[in-house]
Amino acid sequence: MKIAITGIGAISSIGKNVSENFDALKSEKSGISVVENVEQLKKTYFGGEIKQSNAELAELAGVSEFENISRTTLLGLIAAKEAFKASNSTLKTGLISASSVGGMDLSEGFYKDVVKNGDFSKKEVLKSHDIGAGADFIAKALGIKGYITSISTACSSSANAVMLGARMILSGQLDQVLVGGMDALSAFTMNGFDSLMIYDAEQVKPFDQNRAGVNLGEGAGFVLLEGEKALATSKNKPLAYVKGWANANDAYHQTASSPEGSGAQKAIKEALNKSGLQPEDISFVNAHGTGTGNNDLSESNALSAVFSDVPPFASIKGYTGHTLAACGTLELVYSVGMLQNQLVIPNVNFKTPIEETGLVPVQELTKMPISNILSNSFGFGGNNTSLIVGV
Amino acid sequence: MSVFIYNYSTIGRNVIDNAILPNLSEPNHEVVAPNFKEVIPAKASRRMSSIIKMGVYTALHCIGDETVNGIIHGTGLGCISDTEKFLSQVADEEKTILSPTPFIQSTHNTIAGQIALLKKIQAYNMTHVQGGVSFECALMDGIALVNEDQQKVMVGCTDESTEFLMQLMNEFKLPESDFSYGGSSFLIGSEAEGAKAELESCEVVDYASWDAGSLEADVVVSGSSYFNSNSVASHLDYSKFSGVHLSNSGYGLQLAIELLHASTETLKTIGISTPPKSIAVVNNYKNEKIGIVNLKAL
Description:
Distance between the termini of chain B: 15 Å
Largest sheet of chain B: 10 strands, mixed
Number of helices of chain B: 10
Number of strands of chain A: 15
Largest sheet of chain A: 10 strands, mixed
Oligomer: heterodimer
Helix content of chain B: 25-40%
Shape of chain B: globular
Structural class of chain A: alpha/beta
Radius of gyration of chain A: 19 Å
Strand order of the largest sheet of chain A: 5-4-6-8-1-9-15-14-10-11
Radius of gyration of chain B: 19 Å
Strand content of chain B: 15-25%
Number of strands of chain B: 10
Number of helices of chain A: 12
């Protein structure tokens, strides 16, 4: 059975809906800037910050009382609403959401109030802290009642949500499922990546020899997945198909990837197996490409090991920053756009190939035939996920 | 395809030597920690927070020497103590250089990741975070994975308690003494041989539209994974023994398996007259969701 993508939604620092996002990508416009609206930062950071306030986001999301709703959830709801089409009530519909830190954007401020001043007055924000609460809020807003879960596997979270959604449709437990990821910028994650010394003080440089770490970003991406039964009822038009997926664990280190990318290799190979495609059927690789020394080398080595000729590849992180749990589905939305437009969005800020691999990412907007895109998402905990999306 | 449970392991109130049932006559509020060093290498254990230790312990205890084709974990709040530690550094304006260890270990999938790392398991590795039904979400994923021909899958759940959480209980006027912590792991798979019970189904349903009369099992054990949740009519309320926490439905499931193997005499002491052929474990989360795990005796 084919798993169709019939709805897409996106919000990030390059746009508040799918068309704004794709227009920015086509004009190679980056959304990375100096982060202005996050408190408790230890220094000045570049990031993919969405400049709208929570109040403005709440209006976009159609939420009237937003003080105790996390920015993460607001972003998620905006993208989820764009992707979801009200369904026929006879269909079994589910929601699989993903986030890395949930409502941290609000709870970190509350925590500071408590430790500094013993002030618990903002405690109601904690009801928006746990990741599951975000999923429940979105489900309620969209009228989804059945299967609701959240995945949190760091940076591979929403790619895993897509995989789980596809599996739930294949097993017949669901007919259609809205899957996606969301994360707002927070002092917790920005100071956190910096404490690991993997936050580039300048603009992120994926796959460049002189890359120095991530720029984090915020956003959300959601897609509506439908199986054959749902398609027959909903009459929704497939925009693309999710053809392959796999999750494998590197089992090497809590945060670092193995130099040869053994978990990544396993995920890519198993996703290819699942899709029934050959390596040469992959037209383009949407790389995880975070810009850290470790990820980009490990991912390059994994690509070189699986593909005798590494397909054209690029990372989107130079446009949106690394949106953590959101990047898997946000980039899946972009991949659908690349398939629809038969257009590859280039990697930005690249100058010098990585010495060990010599791999050069796509650097110019390229019209080319694209039938299948491999999309990688790799996270802490050795969590590696590969998806294959195609026409 | 039928799915079976081979092994279990739980940490929580009234669990001694991995057994719950023998300790129900004189319940207390104490969580007796197992000897972590028996299964977790000392060097790794030293760096682990309570939740990681508990999650890794129950999983490794369950896995033993088995080959596992998937690791799935559920947690409502994740690694809260490491999160607090890192937040304290963030909030401290004097501090400009932060220790990354608590940040690294704050990630929700640290537990499943550590299990994979210690056992060198490269298979499917997933973490579900869905409030008080996180365990049920993980278990549904596990059942699906077994149905996709993965022979043995490790499914677990853990939630920890911290002083700060206890303080919050107070602030929200919730009964501190009922609030607890703990976790469970289950080794599930497709072969009947060596199994302790059959895992018939697992689902999460909307509380408002749920009919308690729809349960068909001989015996029902129920509990609440959050405060102020209505009790569901049952033979035994496991949350009275486990305490309330977001992962206590794992505790309920282990207790149910123990009940399937209990003597007639023991069953009589808790008011069950006939040895059950089937048990439903029902978890009420906030009067919003009901988690149901259906078990069958072999």
